[in-house]
Predict the 3D structure of the following.
Amino acid sequence: MDYRKGSLGRVFIARVDHGEDLLAELSALALKEDIRSAFFIMLGAMGEAKLVTGPKKKSVPPEVVWSAFDDVREVIGAGNIFYENGAPKIHLHAAAGSSKGLTMGCIRKKAESFMVLEIFILEMDIPAERVFNEKIGFSPITF
């Protein structure tokens, strides 16, 4: 384990409106406000999303399983914002459900808001970034 201690900085509340892409909007906000280290919680509804719902088997690097939905789902999620290769990288895990069932995973591609998504962002004063690690197949937080 590796860790750093820090403090909270600025606080943002963002609203992603109907039809907007959550990941694109969060990335744009991070660029505009120079948010380089933050975590957030989110709630609202999505009309469409593409997400990773796990690896095919327990191996490193993992071979991911992609899932998607294009119906309306209530969502709750938690994530973080760090930079990777000079740009904001959003890492978001969420549960999305309706009367038809529940999907949970890492939202990595299209994430369309339905009516509204509300995001509560807490910036941290901990310098960190994401650096791709070929051995494990992803970009962990690096101090």
Observations:
- The mean pLDDT is 97.
- The two ends are 12 Å apart (CA to CA).
- The domain at 20-142 is CATH 3.30.1330.80 (60s Ribosomal Protein L30; Chain: A;).
